[in-house]
Amino acid sequence: MSTDWHEEALCRQVDPELFMPEVGGSAKDAKATCMSCEVRPQCLNYAVDAGERWGVWGGLGQKDLRRLIRARRAEQEAA
Predict the structure, then answer these.
(1) What is the DSSP string of 43-55?
(2) What are phi and psi for residue 69, nearest 5 degrees?
(3) Which of 35, 52, 54, 76 sits between 20 and 30 A of 70, alpha carbons compared?
(4) How many CB atoms lie within 10 A of CB 68?
(5) Secondary structure of the chain: what % helix, strand, coil (to 5)?
(6) Which residues lie closer than 8 Å to 18 by C-beta, 6 or more apart?
(7) End-to-end Cα spacing for the chain
(8) What is the pLDDT of residue 79?
(9) Where are the domains of the chain?
(10) Helical (H) or strand (E) element with 41
(11) 13-71: per-residue pLDDT in tens?
(12) φ, ψ of residue 57 in degrees (nearest 5)
């Protein structure tokens, strides 16, 4: 699984803690950074493929990311 996209990611230019908010904390700034990032699709695909369940990846928070991981797994199982 390639992570070459990470060199171009905007998240490298900000505090990494932004993408791992504490319970009850806001992920708003992290998501805004992601939405401006050119490699957002690659980041999101990486997170789903790797089964990342924590933090903000590709503009999705933990809840939405887990939902997407489950949906993609279900699609693969149905195929």
Answers:
(1) HHHHHHHHT--SS
(2) -60, -45
(3) 35
(4) 16
(5) 60, 5, 35
(6) 11, 29, 30, 33, 56
(7) 22
(8) 80
(9) 4-78
(10) helix 40-50
(11) 999 999 999 888 899 999 999 999 999 999 999 999 999 989 999 999 999 999 999 99
(12) -135, 130
